[in-house]
Amino acid sequence: MARTKEFDEDTVLLKAMRLFWQRGYEKTSMQELVSHMGVHKRSMYDTFGDKRTLYMKALNRYNDFIGQRLRHKLDNARSSEEAIRLLFEFVIREEDEDPKGCLIVNTAVELSLLDPECKAWVNEKQEWLERTIRELIEAGQQTGEFSKTLDAGALAAYFHNALTGLRVMAKTTDDKEKLHRVIETTMSVLKV
What we know:
- The protein has 192 residues and is mostly helical.
- It has 9 helices and no strands.
- Helix 1 (9-23) crosses helix 4 (51-75).
- The longest helix has 28 residues, at 116-143.
- The N and C termini lie far apart (68 Å).
């Protein structure tokens, strides 16, 4: 007879996600995962598979976790410019207790050269973000908020690159004023 699970899968997956987010894939041992998640090793393997499979599930959970929060902010933006600014400010949010930085960027840096599946997953998420930024710029051009002479595709790539850099900076500095100055300088490109 199969035993019933004595834990909530999503709760323990969130714990694994946060540990990977904080420590990275390579620096997180199976024993640390078992201890942090509060489950027996056998239950973890039965439910989530091996460490690599758990990591991929944690990445997907992270994408859902961040995506819901980000979508809520973007849906409540009053303009395209405000929505783009919210993307940047989301990176340096002050109230959250999450680990610093971004698990997607961390994965790109740590694993994309070593793991083709991780690379493809990261590329898919980065393409979505760049497409979202391009759509916001194009919407702003349609409403007259931004000049139609701006190249929406090139600007989207530029903003995506700036956003990735800001995610890295947010991991390495507590100087919120400096991070806000980076946002202001980046946003000034839209005023051309």
